[in-house]
Amino acid sequence: MSADDATTGTANTDDGTAGITSAGDATTATSAALLDTAKAWRDQDPDDESRAELDSLISAAEAGDTAATNDLESRFSARLAFGTAGLRGELGAGSNRMNRVLVSQAAAGFAQFLLTENTSAGTALGQTPSIVIGYDGRKNSEVFARDTAEIMAGAGVRAILLPRRLPTPVLAFAVRHLDVSAGVMVTASHNPAADNGYKVYLGGLDHGSQIVSPVDGKIAAQIDRVALGSVLDLPRSTEFETAGEDVLDEYVRLTAALAGGGKAPASENAPASEKAPALENGPASENTPTSDTAPVSVVYTAMHGVGWETARRVFVDAGFGEPTVVTEQIEPDAAFPTVSFPNPEEPGALDLAFARAREVNAELIIANDPDADRLAIAIPAPGTDTGWRRLSGNEVGSILGWRAAERQQASDLGGTLAASIVSSPALRAIAREYNLDYSDTLTGFKWISRVGGLAYGYEEALGYLVDPSKVRDKDGISAAIDFLTLVSELKAAGKTVGDHLNDFAAKFGAFSSSQISLRVQDLSDIPRIMANLRMHLPASVGSIRVDSIDDFAEGFGAYPPGDILRFWLDGGARIIVRPSGTEPKLKVYIDASSSRIGTPTERYAEADAVVAELDAGMRALIS
């Protein structure tokens, strides 16, 4: 075929004869179809801002503006996928953005799922399904939540809206506490300010966990059917309920009770099989820490999110009083003005907390992410530039896991400790030491929360579940009160968190981790890098030999297919490579341990050295 042939194609004319269509004609037809799609979306959009946004782009594209046409293609060439994380994406007009049209379609599709899939939705046949809806402080979160409530009510679903912007763990708790069929939380958690999301939970036999396959596919199919029409034709009703303060009160009561060293009684509305008895060493008073604790000077930041109101009440009701706050970050602010990314893991995110802690000579920093489902901890580090060190998610997860194992042993309850496959192997060592069951899961609390007999679960991305009888999702406020109680107990015994980490290394071995997070501008770079790794599997990373490789592409063991590579190396170290599920990143997780004879310091040094070599080797492989 010549170059000229490559720019033309055949098409049927009106009379059925073959005609010639130029590439220019095809482009014109494509542009016209794109404009028609954009206009149809605009005409059903109830939001003045995004409708004006589309109007401007359409006018510019019609005038021949290539950038405007490319922008429209970006917005309409795909649809923001509904999956096991629900929806999450950049705010803006179009099917590939988060906006009122897309959310209305999602709400109507989810409503149809709840009305037609009774057993999947945890609703008995013949009963009206129900849903509780929460929202955080991001742009349009409340608008999206109210749209969802009105559409659910209009479809015949009993809809309950939380009274104001509240943390994700409160919504997850409300699904169980109110014994409803489902829950929706409007949040993008720690994503950039330009994003928002739609997180979906199921009650009934799912016990308030996030949705997983095949339910996500069933909901997506219903959403696709709704999207064939206009959202302006969807029935709406303002006859939805607003939850009372008792939901938040009960969450606060049960969370504060953790400070007593035991597990608080489950909510009365939790399934009987999920309720756990209070431990024998439980709180002497629901509002007072046990006698073997000492006051701790704490600095707290909400990272411009919704955690402060709830966290403050929990701290006070647990008997610890109000912490010193990072004033610039304590109130919800959708612009997140003091941080590049509102994620405590990101470099610089805790700088203001470090500064405040130095001012007041604090002993501990507690940080929640914007929807307070994650927890970051920092401890004093004399001699460093900031004077503080943020503990890794694996360090906090291991310490809280040790604490959970001791609780289970003291109560003689048994149970299972669980972590995502990319989290440190330390939790498995804890479970083995305490004769508890252990389970690895795929990443995400939608999997961790479903482990049978779960006593404690965590993932390295600052997510911890310390009280599964109350909530089945990561909970940064419950984890904060559990960690604060531990620090208070250590102080009463004359110890620090650093001492406790050394005690951990002496008992279980020293575990070291690092993570490479490669952010990309072009999402196609991620499958390209993964494909290249599969084509050129390394025999060694740095100077350390690769013993075996697990490729999850076709499924591995009990795990379903996934874009994951796991390397096992000489000496027991491990590397896992996978795309992020929520951000345009490729992630590499590196873990090593040392339990040889030696001091904790020597053990940590040995494990750290292995991790450092593997980290450098992997950066070279994926660059």
TrEMBL record:
Listed PROSITE patterns: PGM_PMM
Any GO BP: carbohydrate metabolic process
Annotated spans, Disordered: 1-23, 261-293
Domain of life: Bacteria
Named cofactor requirement(s): Mg(2+)
Alphabetized Gene3D superfamilies for the sequence: Alpha-D-Glucose-1,6-Bisphosphate, subunit A, domain 3 (3.40.120.10), Alpha-D-phosphohexomutase, C-terminal domain (3.30.310.50)
GO terms assigned for molecular function: magnesium ion binding; phosphopentomutase activity
Matching InterPro entries: A-D-PHexomutase_a/b/a-I (IPR005844), A-D-PHexomutase_a/b/a-I/II/III (IPR016055), A-D-PHexomutase_a/b/a-II (IPR005845), A-D-PHexomutase_a/b/a-III (IPR005846), A-D-PHexomutase_C (IPR005843), A-D-PHexomutase_C_sf (IPR036900), A-D-PHexomutase_CS (IPR016066), Alpha-D-phosphohexomutase_SF (IPR005841)
SUPFAM superfamilies assigned to the protein according to its UniProt record, in alphabetical order: Phosphoglucomutase, C-terminal domain, Phosphoglucomutase, first 3 domains
Residue stretches making up the Alpha-D-phosphohexomutase C-terminal domain: 558-595
Name of the protein: Phosphomannomutase
Keyword Transmembrane helix tagged: no
Family: Belongs to the phosphohexose mutase family.
Ranges for domain Alpha-D-phosphohexomutase alpha/beta/alpha: 80-225, 293-378, 393-506
Keywords for this protein: Isomerase, Magnesium, Metal-binding, Phosphoprotein
Compositionally skewed regions (Polar residues) per UniProt: 284-293
